[in-house]
Design goal:
The protein has 79 residues and is of the alpha+beta class. It has one domain (4-74): Nuclear Transport Factor 2, Chain: A (Roll). It contains 1 helix and 4 strands, in the order αββββ.
Length: 79
Amino acid sequence: MIDVKAAVRVALDYTKEFSEFLPTYSVRLEETEFVDTGYWDITLSFQEEPFSASRVYKVFHIDAGTGEVRSMKVRELAR
């Protein structure tokens, strides 16, 4: 089973693999959560463009047993 630090690394590595499709400026760790079903939900944020104030938030659903990313979704913030 992977711990939270490993799950964050998995999410960061995943973004690097898809850097041509994802904004990768100023990546920040926003949230981590262990879900009772054996998954880590890792939320990262990205600037849409260099020096932009606007950020995009993505949640990575990672299998805690295998370390495999099972999904990546856009996270909408409450206003």
